């Protein structure tokens, strides 16, 4: 019945927040039973929800009813039941929605053009929904420069203090945002009040969760982001208290601000220094098939346009990144349903022409593991280099060049697999979480993230093992594979002389992410304490990684020369990374 469901839910929520002594000792499995029953019965089984069902133990509409919504967010609903009604039927959910509507109206009054509503849609998602028919290439959102927060907006005293400590551009922008949060008269106040008070990215992970991430090829993110936090702390302590509106800054202020920049910032021009906060644009969720992209970055405004015709009621999305769910969890705290991408993007050193081909990225959804179009581009690049030096290839020479590439990919997958060596069996992390009596640990991080991290690490291991097997098998082939009759697009442009480098449409990158728009932190610092790299990260391809991990820089063979093993170079192949390709 609805009354028993409500009672069970309320008791479950109180246990998480430590609100009721009698439920604090309840077995964890009993708490999960209600969620499973709700999932099996469907939404109709819960006729109504109350505030006590939804908003205790630290859960708020800002966390679970703001983009991307509850679905995929480990901080909401156990990954089992999205509880749409919490966002649309409770008093708190309705008040939050009203504040969003008022904020959009205020942005429009101040000069913004907005052709979408921000609302909760069924299935646990919250995002930008088209409010009218939008034709391809027409404006979806136009935000005047006066409503955007960039490095130019940060007070000079704070910038000077950050420079003395050599703080990263993201850290400087986050310091400015933390100061805006402390200022009740800030132009950003209404937007800030719509943002979550806590996040699910790596800055909020528990010690055991950080241990897991540090045991993967994304451990450099932990190092770099916490170095940013420490630099922020040092710089913040040097500026007058008046910049903090007379109150001392807190660690939580800095962690919150850096999380906002990393997860909601946009990078233009392929640099971290171009990162900015654009209210309203941050409500555009991720989708591999993007319906929105940036069109112009002018002095007076930033404009986002539709990539296709969009009907009223359709959700509007951008493409954050071609990245694995493990990377999405570390950077954003969410996972993408049916995400085909895995591993970590990489380039293989070799002939200079290969730099014009896309970076390699592993895929779960194809038996070849890596898109053959990518592999073929690299094959063709080596063939062209050979022909320029030695003349036309014979079949046996073509086969040899192919085997060089296959061997290098196998070695890359082997090295990435070796970087997933967790110090303890993964099952022990799961058992620790199952035995925990506290849902929220001391750092405000959700224990449920641990099981999701473990699941993704297992999936990554299996994918990398498949990669090793596939490309080891290809090295046994006695005949070269068919070559596409036409050159790959970047090589064709190069040969025709129409472009010495890849032509790119205007684009941006999410400050914490990668892909056909650009991942801001991909590659900051590489691995093993190496300095922050300068990975590529423009707007229409894959992302750069900056300094490569230790052991990824062997000298590659030239075309036609015996192989001494390809070097695995940073992922700089023709395009965008999370944000600006460095970080």
Q: Could you explain how this protein is built, in words?
A:
With 583 residues, this protein is α+β, with helices and mostly antiparallel strands. It has helices at 2-17, 21-24, 28-41, 51-54, 61-64, 84-88, 91-109, 156-164, 169-182, 189-192, 207-214, 219-236, 251-264, 325-331, 372-390, 395-418, 426-435, 448-474, 489-496; strands at 113-114, 116-121, 125-130, 139-144, 149-150, 265-268, 276-277, 285-286, 292-297, 301-306, 315-318, 341-348, 360-363, 508-510, 568-569. The strands form 4 sheets. The protein has a 4-stranded antiparallel sheet, covered by helices on one side. Helix 8 (156-164) packs across helix 12 (219-236) and helix 12 crosses helix 13 (251-264). The longest helix has 27 residues, at 448-474.
What is this entry, summarized?
39% of the residues lie in helices and 11% in strands. The protein contains 19 helices and 15 strands.
């Amino acid at each position: 019945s609805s009354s028993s469901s409500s009672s069970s839910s309320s008791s479950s929520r109180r246990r998480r927040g430590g609100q009721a002594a009698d439920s604090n000792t309840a077995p964890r499995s009993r708490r999960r039973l209600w969620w499973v029953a709700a999932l099996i019965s469907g939404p109709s089984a819960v006729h109504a929800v109350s505030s006590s069902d939804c908003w205790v133990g630290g859960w708020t509409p800002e966390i679970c009813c703001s983009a991307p919504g509850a679905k995929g967010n480990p901080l909401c609903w156990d990954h089992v039941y999205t509880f749409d009604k919490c966002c649309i039927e409770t008093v708190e959910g309705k008040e939050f929605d009203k504040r969003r509507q008022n904020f959009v109206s205020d942005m429009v009054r101040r000069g913004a053009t907005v052709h979408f509503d921000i609302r909760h849609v069924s299935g646990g998602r919250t995002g930008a929904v088209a409010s009218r028919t939008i034709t391809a290439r027409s404006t979806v959102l136009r935000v005047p420069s006066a409503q955007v927060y960039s490095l130019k907006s940060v007070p000079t005293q704070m910038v000077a203090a950050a420079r003395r400590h050599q703080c990263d551009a993201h850290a400087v922008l986050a310091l400015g945002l933390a100061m805006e949060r402390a200022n009740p008269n800030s132009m950003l106040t209404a937007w800030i009040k719509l943002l979550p008070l806590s996040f699910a990215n790596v800055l909020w992970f528990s010690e055991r969760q950080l241990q897991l991430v540090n045991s993967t090829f994304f451990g450099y993110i932990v190092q770099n982001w916490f170095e940013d936090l420490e630099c922020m702390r040092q710089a913040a302590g040097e500026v007058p208290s008046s910049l903090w509106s007379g109150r001392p800054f807190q660690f939580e202020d800095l962690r919150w601000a850096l999380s906002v920049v990393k997860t909601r910032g946009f990078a233009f021009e392929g640099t971290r220094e171009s990162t900015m906060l654009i209210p309203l644009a941050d409500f555009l969720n991720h989708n591999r098939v993007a319906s929105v992209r940036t069109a112009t970055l002018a002095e007076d405004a930033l404009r986002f346009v539709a990539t296709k015709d969009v009907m009223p009621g359709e959700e509007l999305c951008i493409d954050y990144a071609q990245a694995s769910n493990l990377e999405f969890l570390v950077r954003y705290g969410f996972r993408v349903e049916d995400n085909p991408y895995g591993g970590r993007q990489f380039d293989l050193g070799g002939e200079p022409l290969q730099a014009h081909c896309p970076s390699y990225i592993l895929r779960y959804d194809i038996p070849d593991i890596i898109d053959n179009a990518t592999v073929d581009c690299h094959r063709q690049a080596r063939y062209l280099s050979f022909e320029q030096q030695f003349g036309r290839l014979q079949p046996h020479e073509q086969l040899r060049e192919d085997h060089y590439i296959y061997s290098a990919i196998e070695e890359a997958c082997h090295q990435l697999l070796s970087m997933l060596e967790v110090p303890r069996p993964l099952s022990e992390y799961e058992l620790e979480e199952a035995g925990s009596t506290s849902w929220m640990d001391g750092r405000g991080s959700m224990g449920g993230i641990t099981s999701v991290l473990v699941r993704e690490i297992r999936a990554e291991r299996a994918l990398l093992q498949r990669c090793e097997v596939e490309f080891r098998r290809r090295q046994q082939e006695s005949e070269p594979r068919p070559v596409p009759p036409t050159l790959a697009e970047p090589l064709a442009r190069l040969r025709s002389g129409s472009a010495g480098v890849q032509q790119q449409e205007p684009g941006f990158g999410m400050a914490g992410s990668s892909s056909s728009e650009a991942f801001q932190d991909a590659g900051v610092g590489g691995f093993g304490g190496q300095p922050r790299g300068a990975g590529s990260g423009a707007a229409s391809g894959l992302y750069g990684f900056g300094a490569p991990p230790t052991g990824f820089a062997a000298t590659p063979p030239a075309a036609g020369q015996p192989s001494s093993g390809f070097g695995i170079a940073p992922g700089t192949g023709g395009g965008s990374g999370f944000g600006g390709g460095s970080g």
